[in-house]
Design brief:
By secondary structure, the chain is α/β, with parallel strands linked by helices. 32% of the residues lie in helices and 25% in strands. The strands form 2 sheets. A 6-stranded mixed sheet has the order 6-7-8-3-9-10, sandwiched between helices. A 4-stranded antiparallel sheet has the order 2-1-4-5, covered by helices on one side. The structure holds adenosine-5'-diphosphate and magnesium ion.
């Protein structure tokens, strides 16, 4: 479903963020991407989302080489991917409902379809009662659930999560991880970059460990084990 072949990434400032990465991800997997700060986790997610394109190598999403996409094809790729971040990135002047509905409005969906899908997705993330509130009126966990609803409302095949619990207290973090697990069980592939050792060790999912732009470990039912990671 996702394939990275000999992918290297050098940023404009000359920093080599990724060095000949090879990675294969199957439909329906739940993957943790771990490793110290600056090891390249966010860069991998940004590449899959085609926020940036690699300096070398190929990236396939559903057998399509995404670096070759024309700019006007990128929105269609993005609709098959959902992404969430540590800082939620909600639109402050839109309420919960409007933040989620907006993802459908930009696709030109019909009004009744926007309403049906938005309400269904808010129900999935447990925000049916809170949809009139604005981001600043929500708890952190609710902000992230709004962001998850926004990412899911287009029914993507893949959900990318860049340290989604990084700004949350432990209780909200578990709530979010349980929600991501539920979403994964419904068939969505989930790739989550995280520093949260407790969550990674508890979940017993595939764990990819990065260090200095390299994948240094890739384990089924893995654990965090950052202590073994040498800094490069
Ligand atoms: N936009 C950017 N421009 C230049 N260098 C960057 C940029 N983003 C990340 N980097 C550098 O690339 C390397 C990998 O960063 P990143 O992928 O953000 O790692 P992580 O998410 O694991 O912390 C780091 O050395 C970082 O400083
Ligand atoms: Mg990062």
């Amino acid at each position: 479903m996702i394939e990275l072949v000999n992918v290297s990434l050098v940023y404009k400032n000359g920093i080599k963020a990724l060095d000949k990465i090879n990675l294969s991800i199957e439909k329906g997997e739940f993957i943790f991407l771990v490793g110290p700060t600056s090891s390249g986790k966010s860069s991998i997610l940004r590449l899959i989302y085609r926020d940036i394109i690699p300096t070398e190598g190929e990236i396939y999403v559903e057998n399509q080489e995404i670096s070759e996409l024309k700019n006007n094809q990128v929105p269609y790729l993005r609709r098959r991917l959902g992404i969430i971040f540590q800082d939620f990135k909600l639109l402050p002047h839109k309420n919960v409902y409007e933040n989620v509905a907006y993802s459908l409005e930009v696709t030109g969906a019909k009004h009744y379809e926007i309403k049906r899908k938005t309400l269904r997705t808010l129900n999935l993330v447990g925000l049916s009662e809170r949809y009139r509130l604005f981001p600043q009126e929500l708890y952190g966990g609710e902000m992230q659930r709004t962001a998850i609803a926004r990412a899911l409302v287009n029914e993507p095949l893949i959900l990318l999560a860049d340290e989604p619990t990084g700004n949350l207290d432990p209780y909200s973090s578990w709530e979010i991880i349980k929600l991501l697990e539920k979403i994964n069980q419904r068939g969505t592939t989930v790739i989550m970059a995280t520093h949260d050792k407790d969550i990674v060790d508890y979940m017993k999912k595939r764990v990819i460990v990065m260090s200095g732009g390299l994948i240094i470990k890739d384990q089924i039912k893995g654990s965090y084990h950052i202590s073994e990671v040498k800094s490069v």
